[in-house]
Every structure is written in C-alpha cells, then in structure tokens.
C-alpha cells in the first residue's frame, strides 16, 4: 500500500499524520520551517477552553514519531509533482539535497500567514513601539511577561482593535473568523492576571458563534470594555510613548480619545506565503480570496487524490483544523485502501 | 427625502450598501472634532435609509479633505455621498443663504467675494493690476457646460 504526503507541519498536518499512522499508513510530513507547529507554536493559552498550545502540538508529535510509519522532514519543500492519484511522484527539496518519494495521496495543510499591518499607516504599526500585533501579545502572555516595548513596564491599559486586515476592501474582504475569539480570550487572560489593567476592545461586530459566546460573556463580566467602532487614527505624544486612539463610538455618536498604553492589532489570516506557486505546481484553483478552492466541502479539491485540510482553504480555528486534519486523513485512507 | 435615485448618475450605486457603519469616517473627520453636529456616518445612514434631511445646515460643513474617502474600509466614498446631498439641496433651493449668495457672486465675477472699493485701494497701494469686474465668455461657457450655472 502506498504512502500519504502531507504538506505543512502545523497542527492540521500533525493531526492528519497522527491519524494516518494510527491507521497503519506510511506518512511523510514535510515542513519548510526548522520546527513543526506552524502558527500555533507561537501561542500559549488558546480559546475557548484555554488549552495550552505547546501541549496540543507536543502530544501529537510524540505519538506520531513513536510510530515507525511516519517520516517527518523539516526545512523541506515540494519541488515538483508528477503522476496521478494513487501514484504520485513527488520531488522534495531537503537540506540534504533532492529526495524523490512515491505517494498515493497528498494532503495540503499549509495553513495561513498572519496579516502584516504595516500598510495601515494610520495605526502606526512599526512606527510606535507599543502598537503590537495580537500574536506578539499572545507571546508575551505565554511567557507571563506583559510589558510595554517602549519602557519595559507593565501596562495599565490595553486596547484591542478588531478586523485588522479583515472585512476591508483595502486589504482583505473576508472575515478571518477567529480574531474576535482570540481577542476576548486574551482580554480575559489579561483581566485574570493583571486585574488593575483596563482592557478595551474596539469592534465593528463581535462574531463569537455557538459556545464562543460564553467567552464573550465572560470577558464582559470581568470588566472588559467594548466600543463599537473602527478607529480612525492612533496618535502618539511624549516620544511616541503615550498612545491615543481616536474613534467615533458609533452607538452614541460621540468622538472619543482613548488614552492607552498598549494598542493590540487583532490581525487576521492571509493565504500562506507561496500559495500561488503551490497552486500552479499542483494545478488546483484558488478562491478570489487567495486561499485554496474546496470543490466539495470540507476536504476535496478538483484533483483526485489531493485533499485540503485546515486553514489552507480559509481562516479556521484550532478545533476546525483538527477536525479537517482527521477528515482529510480518513479520505486519503479510504482512497488508498479501495 | 430619498436621495438614492439621484445617486445613480452622480455616483453609481454599486458600493452604496457596503457601508457597515464602522465610524472610521466620522472618527477621523476634522470637522466632526469641532462641530459634532456634522457626522459623516449618520449622513450616510440617513441617505441609505432614504431619510436625509437636505435642509440640515451641517451638510455644508464638509471641507472636502478626503480623509473619510481615503480611510473607508468599504470604499463607500463618503465624501461623494455628502456632495450628492449638498448638490441636491442646492438644486432644490434648500442650501443656506450664504451658499446661494456665494454661487451668485461666483457666476457674476468669478470670485467668491465681490470686489470692494477697499480691495481696489489696497491693490493700488501694492501696485497690483486692476481686477476685471465681469467674467469672460469662456468662464460663462464653462459654468454652463459643467452645470455650475444651475447648481454646484
């Protein structure tokens, strides 16, 4: 029986590899970075239940590597692909040189790249040290050290701005779907660990569907303040250390100038770097958004034997990524056993 | 009144309903900061609801600085919507008197203020050439072709 090639060693690819090896199918998991874990490895506590990200990764990687069926190749990329379903021939670029492998099915789990907010000049990202991305904040909270970049002091106020790089015709029109959840989760964590810190969230619409509504409720109970607005500008004074967020509170129509010590940009997801070239290499269509096009939800593409899993077909939360990793593994297994 | 049918010619109606009332326009508006009665977001809302009050003086406070236009995440062109409202207000005779007066003076002498005897004297002191009292034929033609004679 032939093997399955998984592109992308984030949580989705790891989950697919784990499930395939559990089914006794030989698996190649390739990752272009030096380490497995993808975007998740930068996080600590994750929404909604506060599961610890490194644990989610380590547990699965350990189990996968303990199986003789799995080959994990880091710093490796796909160079070319020939053949067809059940008989693909993939050429991989590894640090040791080119390596050819045969595989019956391919799972694309290349995930997403976080949006880079440098282009949004009115928010001063890159110019003001205390305007940071939610990813940086998550890293600080993970390490238990929430401080201002400018002076290394613990902040007394933190303000989140939602929909950065999402729902905006100047950047990306789609909703990145997970930013509201991680923002209320991070806000709650700040309130928990730094009770005197004022936390504000500036949102256009809060999208916390199904049970995530409960973490939104929890954040409100803990005193996180919510303002309905997309801010117009962030100003800085005193050597760029005092930040003021200027916005219209659209619920009462007043103009507000909110002084805050840290501004957190809740960045969305963009197609993973290199998605274009991968799509043309595999001859799979992309959506208008730039993510891979799903022909039949959630894991099928128009090419037989090539499956999509996780954020490769659009922004997704961890639970959905795990589910799709398993779903793609199941479909690959069905294909190879028939 | 319902301005939506008029917007078609002026503006095209494609993006009109993309506005999600996020407040980026009003938040950055330099006029709103000092004159809160001028609120771009609520003007757009009223236009979309078909309930814009064209006699509202605040419509005329826009300085056309284009900040709302530049920052709008939905490319709704808020400034153009406000201009559509002021243009229609003018045509319907609902513009403030000062605006109609300015329009009259512009058509008459090509400037937004009339040439006073003081101005003439000052120009002489600084050895500046005399100003023409009436406008050229070309100016009149342009005013007619652009529709300025009938409105803004």
Quick overview of this protein structure:
The complex is a heterodimer of chains A (338) and B (152). Chain A is 26% helix and 29% strand. Chain A has 338 residues and is of the alpha/beta class.
* Helix content bin of chain B: 40-55%
**Unreliable parts of chain A:** none
- How many discrete domains of chain A? 2
Low-confidence stretches of chain B: none
CATH class placement of the largest domain in chain B: Mainly Alpha
Strand content of chain A: 25-35%
What's the rounded overall pLDDT mean of chain A? 96
CATH topology of the largest domain in chain B: Fumarate Reductase Iron-sulfur Protein, Chain B, domain 2
Q: Number of DSSP strands of chain B?
A: 0
Instruction: Please compute the radius of gyration of chain B using only Cα atoms.
Output: 19 Å
- What is the CATH architecture term of the largest domain in chain B? Orthogonal Bundle
Morphology of chain B: elongated
Computed over alpha carbons, the radius of gyration of chain A is: 21 Å
Strand elements of chain A, count: 20
CATH class of the largest domain in chain A: Alpha Beta
Largest interface: A-B, 22 and 22 residues
């Amino acid at each position: 029986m032939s093997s399955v090639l998984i592109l992308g060693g984030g949580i989705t690819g790891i989950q697919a590899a784990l499930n395939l090896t559990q089914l006794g199918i030989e698996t190649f998991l390739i990752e272009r970075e030096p380490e497995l874990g993808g975007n998740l490895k930068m996080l600590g506590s994750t929404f909604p239940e506060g599961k610890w990200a490194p644990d989610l990764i380590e547990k699965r990687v350990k189990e996968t590597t303990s199986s003789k069926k799995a080959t994990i190749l880091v710093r490796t990329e796909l160079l070319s692909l020939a053949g067809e379903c059940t008989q693909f021939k993939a050429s991989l670029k590894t640090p040791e040189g080119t390596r050819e492998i045969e595989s019956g099915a391919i799972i694309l789990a290349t995930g997403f790249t976080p949006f880079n907010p440098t282009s949004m000049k009115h928010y001063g990202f890159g110019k003001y040290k205390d305007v940071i991305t939610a990813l940086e904040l998550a890293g600080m909270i993970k390490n238990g050290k929430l401080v201002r970049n400018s002076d290394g002091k613990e902040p007394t106020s933190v303000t989140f701005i939602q929909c950065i790089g999402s729902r905006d015709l100047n950047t990306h029109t789609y909703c990145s779907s997970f930013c509201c959840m991680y923002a209320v989760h991070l806000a709650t964590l700040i309130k928990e660990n730094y009770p005197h810190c004022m936390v504000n969230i500036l949102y256009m619409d809060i999208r916390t569907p199904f049970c995530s509504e409960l973490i939104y409720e929890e954040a409100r109970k803990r005193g996180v303040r919510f303002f309905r607005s997309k801010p117009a500008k962030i100003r800085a004074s005193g050597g760029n250390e005092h930040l003021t967020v200027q916005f219209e509170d659209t619920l009462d129509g007043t103009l507000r100038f909110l002084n805050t010590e840290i501004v957190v940009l809740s960045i969305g997801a963009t197609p993973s770097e290199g998605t274009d070239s991968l799509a043309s290499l595999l001859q799979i269509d992309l959506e208008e958004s730039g993510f891979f096009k799903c022909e039949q939800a959630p894991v099928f593409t128009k090419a037989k034997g090539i499956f999509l899993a996780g954020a490769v077909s659009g922004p997704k939360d961890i639970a959905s990524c795990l589910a799709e990793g398993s779903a793609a593994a199941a479909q690959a297994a069905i294909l190879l056993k028939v | 009144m319902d301005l939506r049918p008029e917007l078609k010619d002026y503006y095209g109606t494609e993006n009109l309903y993309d506005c999600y009332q996020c407040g980026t326009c009003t938040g950055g508006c330099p006029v709103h900061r000092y004159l809160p009665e001028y609120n771009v977001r609520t003007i757009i809302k009223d236009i979309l609801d078909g309930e814009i009050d064209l006699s509202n003086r605040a419509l005329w406070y826009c300085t056309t600085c284009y900040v709302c236009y530049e920052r709008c995440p939905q490319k709704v062109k808020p400034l153009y919507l406000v201009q559509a409202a002021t243009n229609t207000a003018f045509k319907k005779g609902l513009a403030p008197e000062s605006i109609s007066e300015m329009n009259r003076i512009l058509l008459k002498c090509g400037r937004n203020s009339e040439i006073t005897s003081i101005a003439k004297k000052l120009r002489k002191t600084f050895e500046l050439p005399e100003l023409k009292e009436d406008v050229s034929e070309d100016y009149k033609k342009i005013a007619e072709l652009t529709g300025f004679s009938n409105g803004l």
